[in-house]
Sequence to fold (267 residues):
Amino acid sequence: MSPKREVIVSSARAGDAGTRSAPSLSTLVRGGDFIFVSGLTAVDLRSGKRMRDTTASETRQILTNLKQLLEAAGSSLDKVVKVNVLLHSMLEAPNMNEVYARFFPEPPPARTVCGARVPDGAKVIIECTALA
Amino acid sequence: MTEKLQRSVVEPKNPRLNVSRSANLPHVPGIRVGDYIFLSGMGPIDPQTGERNHGPIAEQIRTTLSNMQHMLESAGSSLQRVVRVHVILADISHAQEMERVYRELFPIDPPARTVWSMQLRFGNGCEIECVALAA
Fold:
């Protein structure tokens, strides 16, 4: 039987609303045994407003949203297998780590952190793959 | 006990798009394993000539995604089966132009996606990789 693909959260429902049209991505997609989460930037999930703050604050907002999104989909932070973190500057890695460490239960998932140019003036992008 | 998973190589039907082979690079275009297909990062290659296409960024994105479609279809999958995409741009200011073309190829229920910018080789304006469900 071929594995099932299902969009669990479309981008419109995960914030980034407002005047711009929603980007062409799904925030959570289930494929087979895994959930694939798009690169998240800091957004207030209730108002859909973008949040641009310090690296620590953006990290906190993103991981709060990630927790909520995964739990709503029947998964959770302790089912995450791999995380990629993109930072606007690697000098900010300790600021991200300090917040990050408080979110994931032991043992935390595998992770890569890179310095990169990220869109829309964000300082942090976090994406992950989790068990469904 | 679960069956042991086997890897198999995914190759494009159009040999001009088999860039890793023609450039003798140490990777394959993609690997199929279990339910998934993992494609290597793809750049803008003209499917007629096998040469790099360094036209406007919109054209580069369209060429790359169209080649990705070919690669997936060669393995019995399709763009509709893609679950995750990474779009890497040489210039982050091309993000909106990328978005415009991208939505033409993923009009409904698009995959999860992350977009960022970092240094790319060969003067390419974009590199795109994906994970898709096998047929």
